[in-house]
Amino acid sequence: MTPVHVPLLRRRREGVTDYRSRRRAITSHRVLLVVRISNKNVTSQFVVPKVGGDTVLASAHSRELLKLGWHGSLKSTPACYLLGMIAGRKALASGVKEAVLYNGLAPFVRGGRIGALVKGAVEAGLVVPVGEEAFPSEERLTGKTIADYASKLSAESKEAYQKGYSRLLKEGFRPEEYPAQFEKVKAAIMGGKK
Questions:
Q1: CA distances to 26, 111, 123, 134, 165 from 108, in Å
Q2: For 58, 137, 160, 171, which has the most beta carbons within 10 A of its beta carbon?
Q3: What is d(CA 91, CA 58) in angstroms, rounded to the nearest whole number?
Q4: pTM over 0.85
């Protein structure tokens, strides 16, 4: 008896959709917090999954941080945390009080950027079931680790420092300023600016 070959669905072959995870999300009948991290930006959406297509209730994009005076990387851990705060405030304004994280095929790394975004949403007042151990440390959230590493790298090798932070330096932002920048933008978000 020859084994039957069952072809994988196209979106699974392309690495776009995890159908098991998607089915669990749809059958949960809850609002999903969808997080996508690209090469330059981060997007967050609150969606209600439906068979005919998802309905987006609220969304936030990391470029919104630029309007609040953010000069650092738009996909760094501090930027993800701040974006989570913006997304959480928008979700609450649109009537969403709780959501379940859905990150599709993107791996959830403990203490990573997705965890930072979720922590920002939780601190904005949203209920997302996730353990505290999944969140990054306070030093990572505020950008202190980036600033410390940049200071150390600058002292050791100016060339490596210039190469590692070339885009930020070209825009006139020194990575050692991450903690101060973080506090400024966080205050702007908490102050109600959108």
A1: 19, 9, 19, 9, 26
A2: 58
A3: 5
A4: yes
